[in-house]
Design goal:
By secondary structure, the protein is of the alpha/beta class. Helix content is 49%, strand content 14%. It has 13 helices and 9 strands. The chain has a 7-stranded parallel β-sheet with strand order 1-2-5-6-7-8-9, covered by helices on one side. A two-stranded antiparallel ribbon has the order 3-4. The protein is globular and about 60 Å long. The structure holds NADP nicotinamide-adenine-dinucleotide phosphate. NADP nicotinamide-adenine-dinucleotide phosphate (NAP) binds next to helix 11 and helix 12.
Length: 301
């Protein structure tokens, strides 16, 4: 709730959630936060991964996990891994869609969602004309403003190539570890399609790895001194500027979705998105050296 308040105060109005996030509680939390703000916010949610029913034992385990994370933030990836077994993925049927959207609307306390994504969809979903038709009817009914797909770049690419109806929004991972496949999607896209990049830092586990790559770049002998000075020690602010610039600057991607539970991360990210110090030419140098680094064999990295 503190992170949400900070995000709102900093001007963030787009929120990405899912039926399964927060062990099924994320939508209700967001709904409570948006109670008197819904008209000013854009809300995306997803269906296709179901949270497991909660027992009182699991509630206790969850609050123990929360305390652990607040004391040892690096434990979050461990907790996430353990929580991964609590979900049923790949639930792409019409009954699940119908139950899920009603539950999402109830938990979010709203009559409509701005985007409903198929959550981590495999490419076989693109053959499910009945399911896609049912998503289209939700759009016609006004319960969903845009239907979308969230998945691997390979699945998104197929959806874009086929111009799959009624999908008008695509969400896919895009970060410094793999910019090229995501950026390739833009070429396949049309002007009406909303493109949203998630996982921009590479997730909890890769934030440090991301920083190390950029430090190595800063230490290369031929680097321009002005760029080197801007890179500095790659603090959170600089890291965010580079991550968002690489994804958003002149790429055609419209939206970036980082996880930001910490208030200082929210503030650094908003500052980065609104006041980047890097020129377009510098951003291109950084992109080029990141992709060169990734074309090295693993032993040389
Ligand atoms: N299939 C899907 O639909 C799908 C899959 C993956 C992700 N997503 C969406 O994308 C969002 C982000 O993905 P993600 O959490 O996997 O990856 P991420 O945003 O790349 O990484 C999140 C990590 O970066 C940290 N961070 C944020 N800002 C930072 C900064 N300025 N400096 C240093 N560290 C920073 C976060 O810390 P704190 O959180 O502690 O502040 C967290 O540990 C998810 O929340 C979800 O909405 C969707």
């Amino acid at each position: 709730m503190r992170a949400l308040s900070a995000a709102w105060d900093e001007g963030i109005r787009f929120f990405d959630t899912a039926r399964s996030y927060g062990y099924g509680e994320s939508e209700a939390l967001l709904g409570a936060f948006l109670k008197d703000r819904r008209g000013q916010a854009l809300v995306a949610t997803k269906f296709g991964i179901l949270p497991a029913p909660q027992s009182s034992l699991k509630w206790m385990a969850k609050s123990a996990a929360r305390s652990l994370i607040s004391m040892v933030p690096s434990a979050r990836s461990l907790v996430r891994k353990a929580a991964g077994t609590q979900f049923s993925p790949n639930q792409f049927t019409i009954p699940v869609l119908q139950q899920s959207i009603e539950e999402s609307l109830r938990k979010l306390g709203t009559h409509y969602v701005d985007i409903l994504f198929l959550h981590s969809a495999p490419s076989s979903v693109l053959e499910q004309q009945d399911l896609l038709g049912a998503m289209g009817r939700l759009v016609d009914q006004g319960k969903v403003r845009l239907a979308g797909l969230s998945g691997d770049p390979s699945v998104v690419q197929k959806a874009l190539e086929r111009q799959t109806e009624p999908l008008r929004a695509m969400q896919f991972p895009c970060n410094v570890f793999d910019l090229s496949s995501a950026l390739g999607l833009v070429e396949k896209s049309t002007a009406e399609m909303l493109l949203a990049a998630n996982h921009p830092f590479g997730g909890v586990a890769r934030v440090q790895a991301c920083r190390s790559i950029l430090r190595r770049l800063s230490a290369t002998p031929h680097i321009d001194p002005v760029l080197k000075e801007k890179l500095g020690t790659i603090d959170d602010q600089t890291l965010a500027e580079i991550v968002f610039d690489c994804i958003l600057r002149d790429t055609g991607i419209h939206l970036v979705i980082p996880s930001m539970m910490r208030v200082d991360h929210v503030r650094a990210n908003v500052r980065a998105a609104t006041h980047s110090r890097f020129t377009s030419a510098e951003v291109q140098i950084i992109r080029d050296s990141l992709s060169a680094e990734h074309s090295l064999p693993a032993s040389a990295q």
